[in-house]
Design a protein that fits this description.
ATP-binding; L-cystine import ATP-binding protein TcyC; binds magnesium ion; binds adenosine-5'-diphosphate; ATP binding; ABC-type amino acid transporter activity
């Protein structure tokens, strides 16, 4: 479904992606791990066209991701994104936050968007918070609203950029549970995370990014327990 072929990306003189290739099949969960600054967020941002790339190609269902093409908004609706900071609209209720995209981007009737939003909020365990405002919720609850908001667009895949990194430790589990459920339902996911337990349990594949290159990738269990590259070994020793 997602096909990244040797992409390069520079910011000014600094090349931050140096030929990254990655394919993600429908229903697959791929975790991207690696030290800060290795290019993980930039890879995700290139996949859904928030950032351009200089060389190589990215296709989603055989359609080229090209930030200047007129399809780009349509492509963006196919790939949801969940950020470390939830970016909810503070002056809108939880349910309004979830309805916004379907109404304004997909022209869904308000009633349909509302009914879908309620169902999604129930799914992420927030059926009793639909009329609350974001600041009345914990970080973990806000992140679950952000996941419901991404799902409301009926994306074909969701990209997660360190979705639990900003959360207090006791709130991480509920968010990971929602993500695990999504994975089990067959959602295609690319997840940047430092939660190695989640990666080991849920990911079909783990890729270790270092200095703008994928230095090692493989099935989650093998990569996390018997990494073959010295850089991967060193990184895992620090985070585990
Ligand atoms: P990670 O998510 O793995 O921490 P990023 O993809 O955010 O890494 O960043 C990779 C590198 O690119 C870093 O050196 C970062 O400073 C740089 N970078 C990211 N975004 C920008 C930007 N908009 N302008 C300049 N440099 C950037
Ligand atoms: Mg990042």
């Amino acid at each position: 479904m997602i096909n990244i072929n040797a992409i390069h990306k520079s910011f000014g003189d600094v090349e931050v992606l140096k030929g990254v290739s990655l394919t993600v099949a429908k229903g697959e969960v791929v975790c991207l791990i690696g030290p800060s600054g290795s290019g993980k967020s930039t890879v995700l941002r290139c996949i859904n066209g928030l950032e351009s790339y200089d060389q190589g190609s990215i296709t989603i269902n055989d359609r080229q991701v090209d930030v200047v093409s007129k399809d780009i908004n349509d492509l963006r609706t196919q790939v949801g994104m969940v950020f470390q900071r939830f970016n909810l609209f503070p002056h809108r209720t939880v349910v309004e936050n979830v309805m916004e995209g379907p109404i304004f981007v997909k022209n869904e009737p308000r009633e349909t968007a509302h009914a879908n939003a309620i169902a999604l909020l129930e799914k992420v365990g927030l059926g009793d918070k639909v009329e609350a405002y974001p600041q009345q919720l914990s970080g973990g609850q806000q992140q679950r609203v952000a996941i419901a908001r991404a799902l409301a667009m009926q994306p074909e895949a969701i990209l997660f950029d360190e979705p639990t990194s900003a959360l207090d430790p006791e709130l991480v589990g509920d968010v990971l549970t929602v993500m695990r459920d999504l994975a089990n339902e067959g959602m295609t996911m690319v997840v940047v995370t430092h939660e190695m337990g989640f990666a080991k349990e849920v990911a079909d594949r783990v890729c270790f990014l270092y200095g703008g290159q994928i230095v090692e990738s493989g099935d989650a269990h093998t990569l996390l327990t018997q990494p073959s590259h010295e850089r991967t070994q060193d990184f895992l020793r620090r985070v585990l």
